[in-house]
Amino acid sequence: MCFRYTVLELNTAAQAVLLAHLFARHGFEKVVYFDPDILDPRRARRVSCARLDDAAILLTPHLTAPLPDDGLVPSEINILQAGTYNLGFVALARRASARALLRWWEARLADRCQMAVERGMHVDQKWIDLVPGFFDDVAIVRDPSWNVAYWNAPHRPIVRDGDRLD
Predict the structure, then answer these.
(1) Which residues, in sequence order, are CB contacts of 65 under 8 Å at separation 6+?
(2) What pLDDT score does 39 carry?
(3) Cβ–Cβ contacts within 10 Å for residue 109, how many?
(4) Which among 147, 146, 145 has a CA at the least distance from the CA of 159?
(5) pLDDT at 84 over 90
């Protein structure tokens, strides 16, 4: 994969391998992944670990409400091209459906983790669009305090308290 992929593609392709490794080699019961640009994951980690008592796979959508049709970027089309779910966060519990997801996802990312929007690919994220249909035990976290980003800021209550954003 090091010779097939760009740095971005390789980093995202490695996500499934890493998650599978943490379960297989280290025996974790729950694994929560955050991209390095996630702010204050402690609360999210606590909440996601609790949610993993009831679901094996937790995903968070890029959007939880329609974007205005104002011609600005990103549009809903851009989000569809990138993928419904944001893989800056994913949480898994050691259960059959999570193991099946990791086997399937790792196989896809081995040679089909390209940034090729014109071919319907957006590294690892587009594959995850299929997860709620393919696997049982999936929960979608729609909490507006999660996954706050420029593309969904109109739907998020963002409050500044001095140097802190809530």
Answers:
(1) 152, 154, 155
(2) 67
(3) 23
(4) 145
(5) yes
Phi, psi at 44, each rounded to 5°: -65, -35
Indicate yes or no: pTM above 0.85: yes
Q: How far is residue 106's CA from residue 119's CA, in Å, rounded to a whole number?
A: 20
* pLDDT per position as a tens digit, 31-59: 998 887 776 656 776 777 888 999 999 99
Main-chain phi, psi angles of 83, to 5 degrees:
125, 145
Angle at 34 between CA 94 and CA 102, to 5 degrees: 35
Distance CA 39, CA 107 (A): 30
CB 121 within 8 A of CB 78: no
Per-residue DSSP letters for 75-114?
-HHHHHHH-SB-TTEEEEESSHHHHHHHHHHHHHHHH---
Per the model's pLDDT, the better-predicted residue between 133 and 37 turns out to be: 133
